[in-house]
Design a protein that fits this description.
alpha+beta, Nucleoside Triphosphate Pyrophosphohydrolase, six-stranded mixed β-sheet
C-alpha cells in the first residue's frame, strides 16, 4: 500500500522576491514532508506542522495554506499531496535567519514541465512542483475571495506573469 505524504512548500516575500523557506538542515530545494495520519484531515496536519515549527510567529489570519497538486512516485510507492504555504512578509524572517533556524532560497524563473495527454512528466522535479504551485496561486488570486483577502498586494506583480490565459489567447512574437 502506498505511503501518503504531504509536502509543504512554505514561501514568503523578501525584498519583493519569492523565497522558499527551508529547515536549517536542508541543503537543497526540498519540501517539508509530513506523514499522513489516519482520520486526520491533511490540512490539520499541515497547519499543526507549521504552528509547531514557527510557534507564535505563525499568523494563521495572514497565511495561505492550500493544496496545489498531487503525484505518485513509483520508485518509493508514495503518493504526495503538495501544499503551498504563503506566509506574510515581516521581520520574523531576519529573526529566524539570525538564529540559524531557517534558510531561504530565492525562487527564480522556472519553466513549465509537461507530460503527454495521458500521463504526467517523468520524473517531476521539485522546482517544477513549486512553479506549478505558484501558477495555482496566481489562478486562485483571480477568483477566490478568501485568497484575495489574505494575499498581500506585493504578490500582485509577481503573480501577474503567471496568470492563466483565456482560451484563444494569442501571444504576438516580436
Amino acid at each position: 500500500m502506498a505511503v501518503i505524504l504531504y509536502e509543504v512548500l512554505p514561501v514568503t516575500l523578501v525584498s519583493k522576491h519569492v523565497v522558499l523557506i527551508r529547515h536549517q538542515q536542508e541543503k537543497s530545494i526540498a519540501p517539508w514532508l509530513i506523514r499522513n495520519l489516519p482520520n486526520v484531515h491533511p490540512n490539520e496536519s499541515v497547519l499543526a506542522n507549521l504552528v509547531g515549527f514557527f510557534g507564535n510567529i505563525f499568523d494563521a489570519g495572514r497565511t495561505i495554506v492550500h493544496s496545489t497538486s498531487w503525484r505518485y512516485e513509483a520508485e518509493c510507492d508514495q503518493l504526495l499531496l503538495t501544499y503551498l504555504a504563503v506566509l506574510p512578509q515581516g521581520d520574523w524572517v531576519d529573526h529566524l535567519l539570525a538564529l540559524d533556524h531557517i534558510l531561504v532560497e530565492p525562487i527564480g524563473e522556472v519553466g513549465i514541465q509537461y507530460g503527454d495527454h495521458l500521463f504526467p512528466p517523468e520524473p517531476i522535479e521539485q522546482p517544477y512542483v513549486l512553479s506549478h504551485a505558484l501558477d495555482h496561486l496566481a489562478s486562485l488570486s483571480t477568483y477566490d475571495p478568501a485568497i484575495r483577502a489574505v494575499l498581500e498586494p506585493e504578490w500582485g506583480e509577481i503573480l501577474e506573469s503567471r496568470m492563466p490565459k483565456s482560451a484563444g489567447y494569442l501571444q504576438v512574437c516580436r
